[in-house]
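Hey all, sorry for the wall of text incoming. These are the two entities for the joint prediction.
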Amino acid sequence: MTRRSLVRRLLQVVPAVAGIFVLTFVLVHLAPNDPAEDLAGEGADQAQIDAARAYLGLDRPVIEQFGIYVGRLAHGDLGTSFVQRRPVREVIGDGLGPTLLLTGSALLLSTVAGLALGTLSARRPRGPLDTAISSVALFTYSLPGFWVAQVAILILAVKAGIFPAGAMTDARATYTGLDATRDVVRHLILPALVLALSETALLLRVTRAGLLREVGRDYVLTATAKGASRERVLRHHALPNALLPVVTIIGSRVGFLVSGAVLVESVFGWPGLGRLLVEAAHSGDHPVLLGMVLLVSLSVILATLATDLAYAWIDPRVRAA
Amino acid sequence: MPGSTPASAPPEALLPVAGADRRRPFRNPAAVAGLALTTVVVVVAVLAERIAPGSPFQTSPQDRFRSPSSGHPMGADQLGRDLFTGVVRGAHSSMRIVLGVVVISSAVGLLVGVVAGYRRGLVDDLAMRTIETLQSVPRFFLAVLVTGWFGTDASTLIVLLGLTSWPLLARVVRAETMSLRQREFMVAARAMGSTDRRILLRHVLPNVAPAALVVIALTGSRVVLLEAGLAYLGLSDPNVPSWGALINNAQPYLQEAWWMSVFPGGAIALSVYGMNLLSDGISRAFDPLAGSART
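and here's what came out:
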């Protein structure tokens, strides 16, 4: 990426972030509740509510309010949770670790499985193996994750007893060191697999399509003419080029993964952001909900940016363009 | 594509570009199967009250945990409520939301995509920035936030999802329109003095339709999953029957009453699968790349 296109790409982040600030600000204003009353708490008198209103800047003109809103966000001030009575930043921070662990594992699993199955599929397009893999993939992509989670718990945890049925750690035991890690991994496998399922289907399709597109190119013909096996041509020649769209997908999947995690976490009782989000929605904890939407949206913007930069780094053609 | 970045490729990547088929979609078995499945679901949804006339919330103590039988083809739940009625009525609720969202998002997506791709320049820049912003807000999070703030009313959900589900369609339509612009028949139409409106309606719209249909079917399938997910989390109107709510209700009784989870789950899976097959089939039938992929 030339310096100019790099700067151009970095600048594109600005309107996206600004757009998210505007969108959430509008939503806050449309919401039927009064943030000042919420902040003052139950049983507050009019003076306290007015003080809260002044503190939040809600007595100023709308444009000024937007300025205050952005200013507070820029300082990392996401407000205070109504329910937990502590900063939203801390509340979200608590759930971040478990969610990153879960989504990270699912991303890794689905990438490895998606690449492997996609390559396998592309070996003989429209052959029996390809047809089987593609059909199964489209069907898995259609399954609701939370339902798969439920069925998986029933069969693999409750009936067969292979995995624990939920939570992140064994509450009855106090493990230390390596045992503690093993305990978390044991609890992690099932939710990560469920979350990875539909992502795998998607990645395998992208890998397969990318490979088939590359297979028609001249360099593949050259390699084949020189006597390289189909396997070798695919893996050593076509795959590196077919990886580009796959990388693109991974960046844009962050939002979907976190959304999927909301449901999967709820089924498994995984103590991450998803469960926090659902609890906040049920208890009407507006600042936590808002903080979460902001955080996830900004993460998606950053992930997309990182993807683009990685893309340019991998593909010299993009770098030059 | 000027003004776009590599990461704006997802439309292409999300779309099922796959095997080779140059035949029309109605001769593509996947598309036909998808169309058939989707039609069945829609017909059930439309005729829901005729197919299952009783109330899905009617309890019946003597039928508690009744396994599937002739009286209760899908069994009954812990309060003796008939699951067949629940699943059939659930189809109605689900398809109502799908229809609303698809109508709104298709209208906005087609309009924005065609105009941005045809006009280019400032309009296009503005459209693309809006699309990028909307695409970075996960719809599911936004839906949870809005139900938490504004309540679980179905029409709120329809408007919210409708107004946030169009960016993918707009992207695909915009790219198609841009490539159409260069084609000779477009130049000819302009040379003949056709108005922009006529060009867009008579020449652009019919040509972007297949690609648009692929995305619209995909949008429908995602909305089914979204609605079910929200209901599963208890974030839907409790007085409206929903597949997701049925699955949530089944959770504590999985071991005793598998049917409480399997039938509503199957209903979601089949509806989503139908729309995905349809989307896949159309894209295979019209994909020019697929021909060269046949090796």
